[in-house]
Amino acid sequence: MTKTWWTMEDLVNETGRSRPWVVKNILEIPKYKSIIQEFGHYPANNNDHYAFIGSKMKQFLEERFHEIYHFKEVSK
Predict the structure, then answer these.
(1) Which of 38, 48, 53, 72 stands 20 to 30 A from 8 (CA)?
(2) Nearest-angstrom CA–CA distance, 42 and 19
(3) Each residue's pLDDT tens digit, 27-73
(4) Are 40 and 54 within 8 A, CB to CB?
(5) Is residue 25 within 8 Å of residue 11, measured between CB atoms?
(6) CA distance 37 to 10
(7) Residues 40, 11 contacting (CB under 8 angstroms)
(8) What pTM was computed for the model?
(9) Is 73 helix (H, G, I), strand (E, B) or coil?
(10) Which Pfam families does its entry note (predicted)?
């Protein structure tokens, strides 16, 4: 069962990748960011946090698995 809201920790756990890898290879890629902003919250400042609608982020990851997984670097 998918949590309703995901934190960055949930996203890291779901992908099995490190936080820096997730930020660099998913969250900050312009074509992904524009999609994710529809169902996610990007931090506005250092005291803010990422948040995502769990079901929509899971669907996003599943639909783009090969594209994301093989994007640029494959290291954790």
Answers:
(1) 72
(2) 14
(3) 999 999 999 999 999 999 999 999 999 999 999 999 999 999 886 54
(4) no
(5) no
(6) 17
(7) no
(8) 0.85
(9) coil
(10) DUF771
Task: Look up residue 41 and give its two tokens.
Answer: 């919250």
Q: How are strands ordered across the β-sheet holding 51-53? A: 5-6, 51-53, 40-41
Residue type, position 75, single letter: S
- Tokens representing residue 5 in the block: 């809201």
How many residues are there in the chain? 76
Residue 22 has which token pair?
Answer: 């997730």
Q: Where are the alpha helices (DSSP H) in 1-76?
A: 8-15, 19-22, 30-36, 54-63, 65-69
The DSSP H or E segment spanning 51 is: strand 51-53
